[in-house]
Amino acid sequence: MDVIFWIATNIFGQAAMLLGFIVLLGLLLQKKSTSQVISGTFKAIIGFLIISAGAGVITGALTVFEPLWKEVFNLSEEPLGSFMGQEVFNARYGSAVTLAMTLGFVINVLLARFTKLKYIYLTGHMMFWTTTIFAGIVIQTAGDVSFIKLVIFLAIIMGLYWTIQPALTQPFMRKIMGNDNIALGHTSASVSLLSALAGKYLGNKENDSEKIKLPKGLEFLRDSNVITALTMGLLFLVGAIIISFKDTPGAQELVAAAGEQNFIVYAIIQSFTFAAGIAVVLLGVRMFIGEMVPAFKGIATKIVPGAKPALDSPVVFPFAPNAVILGFLGAFVGALIWLVVLGNTVSYVFVPTMIVLFFHSATAGVFGNATGGVRGAVMGGFITATVVAWGQFIMVKMLLPGTVPDTAMWAADSDMFILGPIIRLLAQLFF
Length: 431
What we know:
Elements: H1 2-12, H2 15-29, H3 34-72, H4 85-114, E1 119-121, H5 124-142, H6 147-177, E2 183-184, H7 189-202, H8 224-244, H9 249-256, H10 263-303, E3 308-311, H11 321-345, H12 354-399, H13 405-408, H14 414-430
Parallel strand pairs: 1-3, 2-3
Helix pairs in contact: 2-3, 2-4, 2-10, 3-8, 3-10, 4-5, 4-6, 5-6, 5-14, 6-7, 7-12, 8-10, 8-12, 11-12, 12-14
């Protein structure tokens, strides 16, 4: 009994160790060399631990961004309030999330093996964040549920989602790619489908975006790190300038937080800190996913001959690079509009995280262009901004305010926002 308790506490109770164990098992089953096994296992554990460090950096920057814009809009509502946050949530439920993600992947493979939906979802970082956000909704809705129930519920939901989502987008993927070799495995599927439909009925397919010649000066838009820093820098800068001309107690408190440093410079540094935090988190995610996906990919393809890999959204970018930029520009304009609208209507400061808006609007732009040309691409971006802005408000304020609302501000995205209310309803029914 003591041995079981030790294993439960030190392996299954520690998300990083559980993840390392899963990768270790996957590599051993594939008969990898000793060097590959050690390297893969260690990188997976280190990568997972890096995520918590990056999440802390992001949260620190958000604690400046939110009150800054609340003061700009003269909002009196309290900040996020008391919540666990990603670090505490990982400590309590990270093991359940990791195990559910693994079992969900197994369910995905089995469904691909025994049904006509021959898609294996391989976008690992999306697997992790989606499972985390859905776990946050379940805990918020049903309280501190048992480990086993949480794992089973999440595994079934994720396994179904990772199998069905690529199938829904595949008809448009064939149109974009010109073949049926790969599928889309990404949480931008919902806005991509909406964009393709909007383009079909409201766009002009003949006015293809790829007929447009864009200046080389806009090539920096392809770098998500630069876009994140630039956009958040602009928002922090505008907010800081407005605050500098206000003489309210709230404005004085914000300026005082900068100490001897100029407040505008302080705000700009916070924007770069935010971008750096996301870069750190993505480094950690890429590191542990880079080891986890190969650990299962070989096994999955042996079990499911002829399966199509469902891959990350950038696989569609080369097929319509102009649509990528048009989609992002549409999202950027939409994000600024919804920032003002949400602030003045429901007293919520929307955090337009560019890492989400870029990848989702870029993908939606490509889908929209495939059916509606330039108009479809731009509409795809605006649709993305709309779903992300209002989805973030509903997610943060209603679906998981006490668990990981901080994470939802920058890591939750389109499909999670669309499916979030459904997850809450199912949690109410089954727990």
